[in-house]
């Protein structure tokens, strides 16, 4: 079984490398965007693809020399900038089809500014006031509150699945230990910030916060080294 799983993961990584190579050879932005949309519809923008893309981004970050343009004296974007564009567009494409919890997690992992992440968490994980604007610009608060845009279970499930997928790719050799550890730590940081937001809104002793903490306990503090959150699936 282990051998068969390894073969499947190797095939996924090989496909991911081929997909990224095709993107890099697209030649122009419009064609690239069209290719990314097609790859999204075909299910090629999977975890293996983003692992390969992240590895290339890390390598390219060390050398951001602009690529010479044979048709002009002006240099084009660097490989790093091109890969960043590919990453952003692929994430946007995925968010059209993926579950709300995964979409939110991706948004948060792409956001470097803590205050912006906090605003996103408040917007998606906490009920918002049910307010409408009158024609003269005044706000009128209606009875009741809007539903939470992303349920806490959807969000914790997204984090848990992300950790399992990271560990799976690490075990298959698609990511080294440091890279996997950094990605897990990024997810952990997002979970910490979400815990603060939920606690501030619902209360430190609330059932909402307790359930959130309980859901992520086995993810970040697995009881066994055989846990899928340590070894993957």
Provide a descriptive summary of the structure in words:
A hairpin with a 5-residue loop joins strand 1 (129-133) and strand 2 (139-145). The longest helix is centred in the last third of the chain and has 26 residues, at 177-202. The chain is mainly alpha-helical and 233 residues long. Helix 2 (29-41) crosses helix 4, helix 3 runs antiparallel to helix 4 and helix 5 (100-110) crosses helix 7 (152-171). It has a two-stranded antiparallel sheet with strand order 1-2. 66% of the residues lie in helices and 5% in strands. It has helices at residues 2-24, 29-41, 47-61, 79-94, 100-110, 114-125, 152-171, 177-202, 207-220, 228-231, and strands at 129-133, 139-145. The chain contains ten helices and two strands.
The best one-word shape is globular
How large is the count of helical segments? 10
| N-C termini distance | 12 Å
Fraction of residues in H or I helices? 55-70%
Strand content range: 5-15%
Total beta strands:
2
- The multimeric state of the shown protein is single chain
Mind describing the biggest β-sheet?
Answer: 2 strands, antiparallel
**Structural category:** mainly alpha
Mean pLDDT: 84
Numbering strands along the chain, what is their spatial order in the largest sheet?
1-2
Radius of gyration: 21 Å
Low-confidence stretches: none
Encode the helix/strand succession as letters. HHHHHHEEHHHH
